[in-house]
Sequence to fold (273 residues):
Amino acid sequence: MIESFLVTSRETLEASLVVGIVLAYLNKTNNNNYKKTVYYGIFSGVIASIIAAFMFTIFSNGFDGNAEQIFEAITMIIGAFLLTTMILWMMQQRHISKEIEGKVEKHLMNAAPFLSHIGIFMIVFVAIIREGFEAVIFLNAVNYASGINFLGGSLGIIAAVAVGYMFFVSTKKINLKRLFGVSSIILILFAAGLVAHGIHELVEAKIVSGIVNPLFNISNLLNEKGSIGGFLKGLFGYDSAPSLLEIIAYASYLGIIFYLYKRIESSKLKTSH
Fold:
């Protein structure tokens, strides 16, 4: 449930923030005639995301046996990659409002009103459909790893929309930096788990060697099929009998993320001075 909540809340939050910023800026500049364009962008983005989910499901159902394991592994690794780009984006966000407001202002200054409407529509549409496509891949990766929880996913969407709404209604008192920071730590461990689980599937399909498989086995102490083990498997990619390659992949991913985090933090310090 928690992994589904994290995926949908994080994806929906970015989209809801973009929509909220656009609507707030239109209110501030008395351009209320563009609000319908924003709503059309939201509706079109949601429909396109639903179609993408439907097409992905049809495509993924066409695999079985080794091909299914390979497809699941690729989905989880791609999901981890996209999740990583999202995490790095969160780490660098400081002026999201100014960036989006600048784009809206640029389109509003267009001499042709029709082109202004298209520009604002595309800001919203692209934000929705981008997060929708990523959510489709993430949720399928979660499904392969531990199973999708509909309640968790639904609560994630509701929570993200509520945060996006409160961010502007409460004059931006919500500390997005802190919110992104806490969620980033959990998502990093989740992404590392997806990488390890993807490697596990490739080892099972005999596409790669596990080097030492298994490296150890503690299933008699904490089995991933139990309640606690299942929770750890879904959220952090826990495996009671991992191969050496899985451990290497997990540790390497965390090492790379830590290195990139230090680079981002050092670049922030340089620009602030």
User: Anything to note?
Assistant: Residues 113-145 form the longest helix (33 residues). The chain has a mean pLDDT of 80. The two ends are 43 Å apart (CA to CA). The CA atoms of residues 223 and 229 lie 5 Å apart.
